[in-house]
Amino acid sequence: MKRISIKITSEKLDLEECYRFVTDNSCGGISAFIGVVRNDTQGKKVTQLDFSSYKPMAIKEMQKIAMLALDKFDIQKIAIHHAEGMLQVGAIPVIITASAKHRKAAFLACEFAIDSLKETVPIWKKEYFSDGEVWVNAHP
């Protein structure tokens, strides 16, 4: 049984796909984290975001995060999907879903995965404003 789904794509992310992947009859809880492009940052109006990655390394790092989540939390399955390219306000750049026998493990796994992704995965974003743009996420 496949327990991990990792994806980086320029296509629109699909919450239903992530949900279907983690669904399992042994699980009583499914948790999801959905990142959404918001319209402001630090008081400045955001018009769009541009995500780019070093894809081979990013996929390896996302795989490591998923494997750690499986080891660290009592979860059955996990999906970590990230978009790349230009995204408008309201679009979804990241979806993480996890399933577990009990809800708390699924919640904790999703939180761990998004926090780890932001710290270690080589995905960068450029924020666009009406008066310019700036690269953010100065990691790794």
Helix content: 25-40%
| CATH H-level homologous superfamily name | Molybdopterin biosynthesis MoaE subunit
Output mean pLDDT.
95
Question: Care to count the β-strands?
Answer: 9
Radius of gyration: 15 Å
Main structural class: alpha+beta
Count of DSSP helices? 3
State the domain count: 1
Order of secondary-structure elements: EHEEEHEEEHEE
Identify low-pLDDT runs.
none
Question: Could you name the CATH class?
Answer: Alpha Beta
Biggest sheet details: 5 strands, antiparallel
Question: Span from first to last CA?
Answer: 32 Å
Estimate the strand proportion: 35-45%
CATH architecture call: Alpha-Beta Complex
CATH topology descriptor: Aldehyde Oxidoreductase, domain 3
Given the C-alpha coordinates, what overall shape results? Answer: elongated
